[in-house]
């Protein structure tokens, strides 16, 4: 059976993950990333997911998944118990951003976060016209959006540094393609990889 | 013949005799014993598709199907076991066994002690979960099963599924631990103690040797069951089922059974006390209380689980307060610390501890999804 192609942002994340490592995927959904990593890169690990239908879908793929709410932190997981911890397209809808970033820095050496880049020009343009932005990566109206903590790639960089992380790679995509020129303006989806920095900023 | 869809149909119990003495954890030795069991489905050529179903306090080897077309009720987990059901008998060879000390046919307190020619009664040794696992392993040997595709159980059955992975770390591919706990809390032991007291203080108990008196401590057993039953349901579930409904129209201003819930509990208690053995009830509750696989590993559950190559599915039910989700999360935390494969789900349910016997839709779908992967693994 040939492996089905990964969603473009997940494919970029998968590229950042070394074979044979141990990965925690927060908000793993139907387990697409972990299933692919397990098959293609002999990666082990767990997903964490709050939605029962997604837990069942991940189980059907053979992914180990823990049903729980990320807002409570990651107390089930020990310090440094993973090589990577991934939080993909979830942070913008979470309440306790500082807690989850601290927890990510605690449980793994390397963190990977992806989020819709609020600095994307279409968002800026719609705001300039006096409207809340609605775009491909933020497809909701202001009154029904689950997104309560939107940020730009610069904002995220400031916060992760403040929490004791150090960005090692960042990348901005639009429609699955990497944007090299003016990324915070032209890219709608941000991917950030960070390591725990030596100094503790907390 | 019953051709009910998704039913294993008519089944019959089998019996296995064991002459090799079994040394029990409590120090006693059972010189010989019998286990009564049932099987459904077909063992494949590689002998890799066998599933052991472990029963809880009041269960038995009669897991699925009926003995006669007239049987009012099928086996206790018929909604989960059968052709096309999550524990799919088209793909798995399923074994149900009555545990030692039971009262459904395996050697227990009501059996004849070969040394005295009388029922064991008070002389039947206290057995623990690990003793059951050892006895089950001998049955597995007898059936030619080196490694179970899965060991599955709810509540006390889940403790056996967990214990299998500790005692025989390489004989279990998957351990499904449902509505269970790594050890009982003080509150839980306390409930068991009240239940035991009800039996021990029944005038017909006769120190456990009531068989010789042609009687049994039915009243105590009935109370024990009524108490247990309350703890197996949730407040919400009970409220939804009975509320404050009266069996009659008005309050009677007396102490008789007036509320629907009273009448239900009394009926359940009576029905249970008619068919279950009080000594077995004592033994089962003691096995629950003693269960603590971490105890011999310096109190560390991750250490107890370190050796196993089993993968785990741990399931709890939101309204279960007798074996709360927090106890299941204790198991999950230990498995994560031991870096084992584990999937955990907390099923939204109003059914309390009894949830593991019910068919809440996400629960059934989860079991189905998990066991389909197991089936693919063992039936290549």
Question: Your description of this structure?
Answer:
- The complex is a heterodimer of chains A (202) and B (380).
- In chain A, 30% of the residues lie in helices and 25% in strands.
- Chain A has 202 residues and is an alpha/beta fold.
- Chain A has a single domain (8-119, 150-196), classed as Vaccinia Virus protein VP39 (Rossmann fold, 3-Layer(aba) Sandwich).
- Chain A has an eight-stranded mixed sheet.
- In chain A, strand 6 (165-174) and strand 7 (177-178) form a beta hairpin.
- An eight-stranded mixed sheet of chain B has the order 1-4-8-5-11-12-13-14, with helices on both faces. Chain B has a two-stranded antiparallel ribbon with strand order 2-3.
- Helices cover 34% and strands 16% of the residues of chain B.
- Chain B has helices spanning 129-143, 156-167, 186-200, 218-232, 235-242, 260-275, 278-290, 301-305, 325-337, 361-378; strands at 14-18, 22-23, 29-30, 33-40, 50-54, 81-82, 87-88, 93-97, 112-113, 118-119, 148-154, 172-178, 311-317, 342-347.
- Chain B is of the alpha/beta class and 380 residues long.
- Chain B is globular and about 65 Å long.
- Chain B is built from ten helices and 14 strands.
Summarize this structure as a short list of keywords or feature phrases.
heterodimer; A: 202 residues; alpha/beta; Rossmann fold; 7 helices; B: 380 residues; two-stranded antiparallel ribbon; 10 helices; 16% strand; globular
Summary, kept brief:
The complex is a heterodimer of chains A (202) and B (380). Chain A has 202 residues and is an alpha/beta fold.
């Amino acid at each position: 059976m040939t492996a089905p192609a990964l969603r473009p942002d997940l494919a970029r994340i998968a590229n950042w993950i070394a074979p044979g490592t141990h990965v925690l995927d927060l908000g793993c959904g139907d387990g697409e990333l972990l299933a692919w990593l397990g098959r293609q890169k002999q990666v082990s690990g767990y997903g964490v997911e709050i939605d029962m239908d997604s837990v069942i879908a991940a189980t059907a793929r053979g992914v180990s998944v823990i049903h729980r709410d990320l807002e409570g932190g990651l107390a089930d997981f020990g310090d440094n118990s993973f090589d990577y911890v991934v939080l993909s397209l979830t942070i913008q809808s979470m309440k306790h951003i500082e807690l989850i970033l601290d927890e990510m820095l605690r449980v793994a050496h390397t963190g990977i976060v992806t989020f819709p880049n609020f600095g994307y020009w279409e968002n800026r343009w719609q705001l300039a016209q006096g409207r809340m932005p609605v775009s491909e990566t933020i497809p909701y109206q202001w009154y029904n959006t689950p997104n309560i903590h939107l940020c730009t790639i610069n904002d995220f960089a400031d916060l992760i540094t403040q929490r004791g992380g150090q960005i090692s790679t960042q990348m901005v995509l639009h429609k699955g393609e990497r944007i090299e020129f003016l990324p915070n303006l032209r890219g709608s989806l941000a991917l950030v990889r960070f390591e725990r920095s030596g100094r503790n900023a907390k | 013949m019953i051709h009910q869809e998704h039913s294993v149909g008519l089944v019959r119990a089998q019996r296995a005799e064991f002459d090799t003495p079994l040394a029990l954890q409590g120090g006693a030795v059972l010189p010989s014993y019998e286990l009564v069991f049932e099987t459904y489905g077909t063992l494949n050529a590689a002998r890799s598709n066998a599933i052991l179903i472990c029963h809880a306090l009041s269960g038995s080897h009669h897991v699925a199907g009926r003995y006669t077309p007239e049987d009012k009720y099928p086996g206790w987990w018929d909604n989960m076991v059968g052709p096309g059901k999550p524990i799919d008998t088209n793909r798995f060879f399923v074994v149900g066994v009555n545990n030692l000390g039971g009262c459904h046919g395996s050697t227990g307190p009501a059996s004849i002690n070969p040394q005295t020619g009388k029922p064991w009664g008070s002389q039947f040794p206290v057995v623990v979960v690990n003793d059951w696992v050892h006895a089950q392993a001998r049955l597995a040997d007898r059936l030619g099963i080196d490694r179970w595709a899965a060991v599955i159980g709810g509540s006390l059955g889940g403790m056996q599924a967990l214990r299998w992975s500790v005692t025989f770390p390489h004989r279990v591919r998957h351990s499904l631990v449902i509505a269970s706990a790594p050890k009982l809390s003080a509150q839980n032991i306390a409930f068991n103690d009240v239940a035991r007291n009800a039996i021990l203080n029944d005038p017909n108990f006769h120190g456990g040797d009531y068989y010789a008196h042609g009687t049994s401590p039915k009243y105590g057993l009935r109370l024990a069951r009524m108490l247990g039953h309350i703890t197996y349901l949730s407040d919400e579930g009970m409220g939804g089922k009975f509320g404050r409904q009266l069996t009659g129209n008005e309050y009677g201003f007396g102490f008789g059974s007036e509320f629907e819930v009273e009448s239900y509990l009394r009926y359940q208690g009576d029905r249970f006390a008619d068919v279950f053995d009080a000594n077995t009830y004592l033994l089962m509750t003691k096995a629950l209380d003693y269960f603590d696989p971490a105890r011999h590993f310096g109190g560390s559950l991750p250490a107890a689980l370190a050796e196993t190559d089993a993968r785990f599915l741990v399931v709890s039910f939101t309204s279960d307060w007798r074996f709360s989700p927090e106890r299941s999360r204790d198991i999950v935390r230990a498995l994560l610390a031991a870096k084992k494969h584990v999937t955990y789900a907390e099923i939204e349910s109003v059914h309390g501890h009894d949830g593991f016997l019910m068919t809440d839709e996400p629960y059934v779908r989860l079991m189905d999804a998990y066991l389909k992967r197991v089936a693919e693994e063992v039936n290549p």
